Structure formats: C-alpha cells, structure tokens
Amino acid sequence: AIYENNEREIFIGTNRGLSVLKHKQFLNYNKSNGFENVKVTSFSPAGDNSTYIGTSRGLYCYKNKQFIALKQFDPYSINCLLRPDSSTLFVGTNKGLIIYGPGRFKVLDKSSGLSSNGVNSMARYRNFLVIGTNKGLSFYDLNTRKLTNYFIENGLIDEEILEVKNQDDEFLWIGSKNGLLSFDGVQFHYYNIGINNNLSMN
After folding, report:
1. pTM of the entire structure?
2. pLDDT at 197 exceeding the cut of 60
3. Which of 46, 59, 150, 180 could tie 191 with a disulfide, CB 3.0–4.6 Å?
4. What pLDDT does 153 receive?
C-alpha cells in the first residue's frame, strides 16, 4: 500500500512494517519507535493532518511521527479502509465490515447480511458502499442501511472480488479472480482477457 498525505509525506506499507518518505529521506518505523513489525495493508486520511493505518494486527492513527493503536481493532486483520466523510471510517477486515466514528463501532458480517466476512475492497458508488468480499459483492445502502448481495447467479463471473472502483458514479469496475466486470447500475458486463492480455466485452 502507498499513500501521500497533505504534508507530502509518502507512506509505504510493506509486509514487515512502515516507511515514510519526506524530503528525500526515509523514516523506518518498527517496534522500537511505537509501531509493530506487521503487514501494512491500507491507509486513509484521518483529518487534522493525521493518517489511519490498517495492518494485519489492527488499526493505528499516525500524527506528528507518533502512533496510537486503536485497541478496539486489535482482534481484526484489516484489508482496506475508506473514509467518505469526516464522521465515518469504513474498515474492511477478516471478520466483516466495521463502521467506525464518534461513539460508533458497528460490525456488519455474514450474520447481519454481508455476503462474506472476508472484506477485500470497498468503494462509494452513488448512494451505496460497495463491498468486495471473498464470496460475493455486497451493496450497502447508505440511506436505508440495507444490504443487497450479488453472486454468480446474479451476474458475477466468480465470487472472489479483489478490487472495486467507481468511475464518476456512472460505472463500477470490479476486478475478480477470473476477470473484469463493469456495472452500470442495472446489469454487469464481463470483459474477457485474451491470450495476449487484450480485453474484449462478452
């Protein structure tokens, strides 16, 4: 994972910790200066010149070269982060989706309607939070707070969703284990990858 904050610091997440590039110099962080030697998976702005850092062992907040471990996330391996506004952070984990904010810590998992507990990616699309999981695609309506799931029988080519990206609220692009899809708000379109890595629409 790579991320640039408002102070033009470049954050580089690795399998063994965190490096920050500023003024052409690297600052490497490990257990001796407040950061565990863990896999860094994701970043998100946290406001007030601070940064959320998702790891395989929970969530940190970085500010002024210091790390604060958010202890309520310790049991979770975090895969992705999305902060659509100043009051809410969506946290994709190995145990479901966490909705985090002032006085709020809500977990959505398979028991509450999510397609799977393994959340790989997220994107805001129109009035939905789109959640790519390892067993399907979930649309969380930000107004009604209802979940709608999509599987192979609903138009997916496979159910291991690796990445989702919003293109100007017109198309949603979906990268899965077996190919590429787009969604126009009504139906899915599959793009076949040929032997020369050329794409064509099916």
Report:
1. 0.92
2. no
3. 180
4. 97
Tokens 């702005």 belong to 45
Write down the residue that tokens 């408002």 correspond to.
6
Torsion of CA 33, 39, 41, 47, to 10 degrees: -10
Tokens encoding 181: 């899809």
**CA distances from residue 52 to 67, 90, 105 in whole angstroms, order as listed:** 10, 11, 16
- Decide: 44 and 83 in contact? Cβ < 8 Å: yes
Mean pLDDT of the chain: 92
Rounded Cα–Cα distance for residues 184 and 187 (Å) = 6
User: Tens digits of per-residue pLDDT, 70-98?
Assistant: 999 999 999 999 999 989 999 999 999 99
Structure letter (DSSP) for residue 185: S
| Sole residue written with tokens 């991320």 | 3
